[in-house]
């Protein structure tokens, strides 16, 4: 789809992506050739041109940063400068720079401070986040028992539990797994994530509005979710008790009221809707997709699953549900979960950043407003940090004594000022859901482990695991 050459006096790679009208209509209307096309190409570019180079997306230059050290230098050492958020073409018509994930400048800073404080203090009311996750995990156990070991697609279950956690935090309620409205929301979120993941180019904009394709369906889906959020906000307004906020929306409405006389306040209705959408979408899809990859990997590597089961039985037993405090005594299980996140490589190219002012970086000048893509996949598969980066190997996160070891290349949530807002909640969910399921069920597949294919169903902006069938078999205890 293009060619590369050096620009001698700058020393950056220029990858010219040529857009042809015929290409746009391939694969059901989505534009395939582009930034994410064949992610393994980044290895070749990195080896040939270094950790920093430029690609052209149409007429627009984008700086690509590869490798653990370079990404850390940008997002941590120059955190403020690289904290801008570039637009993502397929969602920008919906968010338009609003909400905590896609905002910039003072708007982003105010919304992020508020969101972090609200979610961190979310012992709001009677239950902590951990307790909510434990309760949801037990609801899942009851639901899986009803399946009586039947073969099934796990998507529905993992979506339901992760969506219910974020619903309880944002909307103050959980849904029954068969609730029609809940099922519709899950369908919209899942379809949108698959469509976004299928796009090989998140940044091409301007021309998209002139063509049919999956971006139109994404727009329709997210607008329908926004209608649900808007109705929920109105119900919250009608029932708000300032002395007893129930959830994120209540806290936001109270902040809106407090700031109503401040013309500079960022706490308006539009930012509330878009923040709730961002939290709902990200909080559901990232964790559920990681769990789907995790259990596929347990089917592929039963000896690893068996070792996790033994650690669960030794530390937790069968008489009580798993608790977050157990994690410190379960290094192997913790390492397995880390390795699932690394191997799943959920957002290979990260979420696009933008520099907030002219800056020097590794000998280059990046003008204010330059878009930057930190290729998280290049860190998660960095051979300098992981002995066998293409293999699933929990030992990547264990030291010689079997204790969990920190690894600077582990950045599935990104790093720096734009690190995922829900990192703490997600890590808690992954541990509690993963261990609760395996405490109560062994897993089985009709496909022999050696024949299980781990190739993503979609690999573009996101990695979507392949579809698979699984049995959850109640564990027989002696």
TrEMBL record:
Q: Under which name does UniProt file this protein?
A: Cytochrome P450 family 2 subfamily B member 6
Q: Where, in this chain's numbering, is heme bound?
A: 420
Q: Which organism is it from?
A: Capra hircus
As for subcellular location, the record says: Endoplasmic reticulum membrane; Microsome membrane
Key words of the record: Endoplasmic reticulum, Heme, Iron, Membrane, Metal-binding, Microsome, Monooxygenase, Oxidoreductase
Single Gene Ontology MF annotation: arachidonate epoxygenase activity
Q: Name one Pfam family in it.
A: p450
Q: Gene Ontology cellular component?
A: endoplasmic reticulum membrane
Q: Which family does it belong to?
A: Belongs to the cytochrome P450 family.
InterPro entries, sorted: Cyt_P450, Cyt_P450_CS, Cyt_P450_E_grp-I, Cyt_P450_sf, Cytochrome_P450_fam2
Asked if the keyword Iron belongs to this entry, the reply reads: yes
Q: Name one GO biological process term.
A: xenobiotic metabolic process
Per the entry, which co-factors are needed? heme
């Amino acid at each position: 789809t293009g060619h590369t050459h050096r620009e001698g006096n700058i020393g950056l790679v220029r990858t010219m992506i040529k857009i042809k009208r015929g290409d746009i209509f391939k694969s059901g209307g989505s534009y395939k050739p582009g930034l994410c096309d064949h992610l393994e190409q980044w290895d070749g570019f990195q080896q040939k041109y270094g950790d920093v180079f430029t690609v052209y997306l149409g007429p627009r230059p984008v700086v690509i940063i590869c490798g653990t050290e370079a990404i850390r230098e940008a997002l941590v050492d120059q955190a403020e400068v690289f904290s801008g958020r570039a637009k993502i073409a397929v969602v920008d018509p919906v968010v338009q720079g609003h909400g905590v994930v896609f905002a910039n400048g003072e708007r982003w800073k105010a919304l992020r401070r508020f969101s972090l404080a609200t979610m961190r203090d979310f012992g709001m009311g009677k239950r902590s986040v951990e307790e909510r996750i434990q309760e949801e995990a037990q609801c899942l156990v009851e639901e899986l028992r009803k399946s009586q070991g039947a073969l099934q697609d796990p998507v529905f279950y993992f979506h339901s539990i992760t969506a219910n956690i974020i619903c309880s935090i944002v909307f103050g309620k959980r849904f029954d797994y068969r609730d029609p409205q809940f099922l519709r929301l899950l369908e919209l979120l899942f379809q949108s994530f698959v469509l976004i993941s299928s796009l090989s180019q998140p940044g091409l904009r301007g021309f998209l509005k002139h063509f049919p394709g999956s971006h139109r369906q994404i727009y329709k889906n997210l607008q329908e979710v926004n209608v649900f959020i808007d109705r929920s906000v109105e119900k919250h307004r009608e029932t708000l008790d300032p002395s007893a906020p129930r959830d994120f929306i209540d806290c936001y409405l109270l902040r809106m009221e407090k700031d109503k006389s401040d013309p500079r306040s960022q706490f308006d209705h539009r930012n509330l809707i878009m923040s709730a959408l961002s939290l709902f979408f990200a909080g559901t899809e990232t964790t559920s997709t990681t769990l789907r990859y995790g259990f596929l990997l347990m089917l592929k590597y039963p000896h690893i699953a068996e070792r996790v089961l033994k650690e669960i039985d030794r530390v937790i037993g069968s008489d009580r549900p798993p608790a977050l405090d157990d994690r410190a005594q379960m290094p192997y299980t913790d390492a397995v979960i880390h390795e699932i996140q690394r191997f799943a490589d959920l957002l290979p190219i990260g979420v696009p950043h933008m520099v907030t002012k002219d800056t020097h970086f590794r000998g280059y000048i990046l003008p204010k407003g330059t878009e930057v893509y930190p290729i998280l996949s290049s860190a998660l598969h960095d051979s300098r940090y992981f002995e066998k980066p293409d293999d699933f190997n929990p030992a990547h996160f264990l030291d010689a004594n079997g204790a969990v070891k920190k690894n600077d290349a582990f950045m599935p949530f990104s790093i720096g000022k734009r690190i995922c807002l829900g990192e703490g909640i997600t890590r808690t969910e992954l541990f509690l859901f993963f261990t609760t399921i395996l405490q109560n069920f062994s897993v089985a597949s009709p496909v022999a482990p050696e024949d299980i294919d781990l190739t993503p169903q979609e690999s573009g902006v996101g990695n979507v695991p392949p579809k698979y069938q699984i049995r959850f078999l109640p564990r027989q205890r002696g």
